[in-house]
Recover the amino acids of this structure.
């Protein structure tokens, strides 16, 4: 399973495993946040930014500041999902991502949609700080 990138939208495939489901056999609601986290991490990786290197080299970490999620339809065990991540609002010290979790078969269906604001923090003080310069430029090009 590889990634796919279209204009301004990064796609990451996720298979639903038994451990992702609840007693009703559908994906537990909080697990969609994990799927979305993976897609954001892989989007940043595709742009050349590894989070462990950002801590080591730039002294920054990223923390979710806010999340708005709409649940439209359930995913079930063994579904193959596409999780999208798109940079919607690059800021000086934060980035807003728009995301969707979709099932492509038997017909394309949006299961979950959301907006996630991620703040850039100093790795030692945990106070907000500007994104590294190299990252600001690359992220701005993605909008």
């Amino acid at each position: 399973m590889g990634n796919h990138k279209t204009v301004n939208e990064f796609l990451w495939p996720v298979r639903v495993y038994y451990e992702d489901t609840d007693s009703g056999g559908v994906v537990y609601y909080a697990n969609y946040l994990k799927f979305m986290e993976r897609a954001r991490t892989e989007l940043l990786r595709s742009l050349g930014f590894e989070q462990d290197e950002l801590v080591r080299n730039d002294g920054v970490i990223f923390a979710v500041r806010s999340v708005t999620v709409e649940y439209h339809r359930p995913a079930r065990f063994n579904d193959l999902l596409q999780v999208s991540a798109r940079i919607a609002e690059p800021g000086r010290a934060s980035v807003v991502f728009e995301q969707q979790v979709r099932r492509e078969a038997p017909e394309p269906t949006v299961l979950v949609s959301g907006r996630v604001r991620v703040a850039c923090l100093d790795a030692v003080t945990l106070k907000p700080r500007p994104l590294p310069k190299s990252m600001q430029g690359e992220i701005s090009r993605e909008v």
Q: What stands out?
A: Helices lie at 31-46, 51-58, 133-141. The chain has three helices and six strands. The longest strand covers residues 109-122.
